[in-house]
Every structure is written in structure tokens, then in C-alpha cells.
């Protein structure tokens, strides 16, 4: 691949992240606000988010395994985007009937959430043919667009109504799809020769969990991110309880993401200076402290401004996680390894974290809830240190 094409392909994947995360923010960041406008209570929203997490616990590893062994990632991402563009509009006419509303949300979540791990894997593997690609910068473009989208959409919803989330979602996802079609495809790294039986999901998972570094890593992901998921789920409710509205939700989401891009842009220099083993530990420690920081909240604007801590923690946590997995897992299982990690981080942590958060909020204040989650997250940081210190295992060729 010549230099001009390398630069062009790098631009395409940056634009995929930019428009995908703007679309993701349009729908999922304002979904709670939309549902509250229809009279949904905290328990109803908690149930929806739990079901959301459960379906993604299945969808992410399933699509990751398929992209490793059967279908190129580009094809799976394309189909997923084509489904979610019209699928998001189904919530409008079904919002008044809970079962149908839930089904429409789960349809979007099945593919939309799964894009996160698939895009991360696609970008990571594409670097083998195009060394100009830098994951942290591309992902930083997504964070930047998410921040801008949160501000713009939060203000637009306050002016024109919450139902406009579907239009924003469709517009940005359609633009992301254009650049998905332009970005280079990659073959399935774990695909067998004709006549050979493909590796099953069970076989692939056993191979992953025989790796001690990966075992410790997955447990650390779970412990660190339960509280993080609870913040994202219950932040809109906490803001509303403090007297906020969709505009405050938009500002808070912007605070979460506005500083992520600079940290991700600067991340390659930090990685070169300190190495992946130090960076992954710093990222996990900062995420644990991010969870504990919610204990300090006393009013609406403090809840909004303290979300800036997300910029620092996630700006290091996310790129170091993808980089770390690529150093301990061979290419033939990498999509599954990344999507299992994403399923634990997004789905399992969302299910378990939201379940316990509901219990804590029923009997205690949100400050006590995040104090407990913060202590659990610090234990996860300890597990990540164990993963780093565990002996490395020889990687099989792709």
C-alpha cells in the first residue's frame, strides 16, 4: 500500500469513529431522558438497561467469533449499521407499550453496542498493512465527536423535543457507513482452509482463558467497570433529581468526553515513554478513582463538572486496554478477545452493576453506592497488576 493510500485509509477510519460515536451518543446518551419523558420510572429504565446489557453479553462475543472465523469484520459492521439506522425509529411508535419499546431498543443495542469492539479490533488488525494507523488517535476522534454531539443534541432536544434523537442517530450512522464502505477490509485471521473445521466458540474461549494474563485481565475489567457503568446509567437520573434536564445531560456527557480526545492524541507518546505495562496500570487506577470521585458530589453543577475526570481516566484506560490485549493474544483470536472484554465491560458490568446499584439506591444514598463500587474497583486495579506480572505465554502464529 503506497503512502498516499495509507493516509487516505487512516482518514477513513478516523471518520468512521467520528460519525459512529456521534450516532451512538445521539441515541444511548439521551435514551433515559427520552424514556423519562414518556413517564418511565427508574425501575423501568433499570430493567431496560439490564436487558440491554444481557443481550450484549451474547452479541459481542458472538459477532467477534464470527469475524475471527467466518465473515470479515467489514461485512458484519456494514450489516449492523444498515439494521440500526431504521431500527432506532421503531422506539417512537412503540414507546407507549413497554414490551415493544424494549424489543426495539434491544434490536438497536444488539448491533450498535457490538460495533465498539468490532471497530477497535478492525483498526488494530489493519495496522499490520498500514503502519500509519494509530488506534488512540482514531478513537480520540470518536470521543471528540461524542462531546460535540452531546452539547449540540442536548440543546436541540431541549428546544425541539426528545424525539429528534432518532434523526440525529440515523444521520450520523449513515455518514459512518459511507466511510466503513471506503475503509480497507481484512480477512478473517482465524479462518481455516477449505475442508477444515472452523474453531468453535467453546474452543476459542478455552484457548483465551488458559492464558493467565488474560484471565486476570478479564476479572480486573469486571471489578473496575461495575461502578463506571453505574455512573453512565444513573447519571441522568441523578442530574434530574438535582433539578437538571436534557441540556444538563448534554453538558455532562460533553464533560465526560471533551478531554478524552487530547489524552488519546497524546497517548502514543506516553506509551513510547512508559510502555504498555505501566500505562495499563495507570489507566485502571484512574478509572477506580473516577468511580470514587462521585462520592464528592453535592449539587447539580458539581455532578456536571466532575465528569471531566472521565476524560483523564478513559483517555488512558481505553487505548491501553486494546494495546494490552494485542500484546497477549494472537491475531486469530483477537476479535473474540476484544469483544469478550467489551462484553464484560459494557454488558456484564452493566447487568451486575445496575442490579446492585438499584439495591444500594433503594436503601442508601448514591454516595455510599459509589464508595462501595470504588473499593471494588481498587481491587480490580490489584488484579490488573497481577495480570501484568504474570509470565507471558508464547503466541501462536496467526
Automatic annotation (TrEMBL):
Name the domain of life this protein comes from. Answer: Bacteria
Primary location class:
membrane
- Major facilitator superfamily (MFS) profile domain segment(s): 213-398
Which controlled-vocabulary keywords does the entry list? Cell inner membrane, Cell membrane, Membrane, Transmembrane, Transmembrane helix, Transport
**Pfam families from the UniProt entry:** MFS_1_like
Its topology with respect to the membrane? Multi-pass membrane protein
- Show the stretches that span the lipid bilayer: 12-33, 45-63, 97-119, 166-186, 214-231, 251-270, 282-301, 335-356, 368-388
Q: Would you tell me the Gene Ontology cellular component terms?
A: plasma membrane
Gene Ontology MF terms: transmembrane transporter activity
Q: What InterPro entries does the entry give?
A: MFS_assoc_dom (IPR024989), MFS_dom (IPR020846), MFS_trans_sf (IPR036259)
Where, subcellularly, is it found?
Answer: Cell inner membrane
Quote the protein name from its UniProt record: MFS transporter
Annotated organism of origin? Anaerofilum hominis
